[in-house]
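Structure tokens please, single chain.
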Amino acid sequence: DLIVLKKEILVKPPMESDKTVLLPMPKDTRAKIIPLTSNDEDAIVFLYSYNGWSLLGRMLQNICDNYLDMNDEPVKLKRREILIAIIDLVTQVVGKDTPIERSTEILQHLSGYVSDDDIVSVIFKIFEQALQFRDFPVLCSGLKLLVALIPNFSHFVWSYLARSGLIARNGKGGLAATILGTTELTNGKYDFTIILIELVNQLVTESVTLETDFPDRMKKDILGRFTSHLLNVYESYQYWKYTSFFQRFKIGSSLTSLFTN
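Here you go.
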């Protein structure tokens, strides 16, 4: 059975931290009451048309703003699950299989209610925070997004890498090497390094096939730093422990392709 609002109400959007940000539900909006089996409360589903991309972008902004304060483990795990799901969705819609016009439109919608310049900047900020916390699942999801952005939005990727702690710079070791040493070598799972190799492969291809406004000098510097890290990987990967033999083969074949092409 449906119910109908007799007057406008203001609803707090999911994961919204700013108490002044509310979503108006106009008079005559229809809704359906859904009983919940887990407790005595019911859920109300409003039949209301709104821009879901903009809402997801706002959710990412709030997760970004509160990422460092997520000390409650159950809440942290739930927010990480939501964060990864949204980033993976964005990855699907910005890849080469989606027309660039549609990808651009979606990115604009996602950026509609964020405080940073755009939604890509928000995600990169989350990725950089995840690097500091060694948040492995988020890092793998973020790297996949970087790979997906290269065909149509490579300027975002190059600009981010130019300032990221992912690679070594100014005498400081890169966090890619730190994650390999402290996380992957310990648990024998190398998802992050495998995606990183794919990212560098895509960057090399982009740098020799596409004309962009990003300076060639900076591209060479970034690729040189990645190459230095991956050469160390190439020289030692066969001696690592693996939970999946396939990952050993994947690392070897991908690096051989990178260094011989």
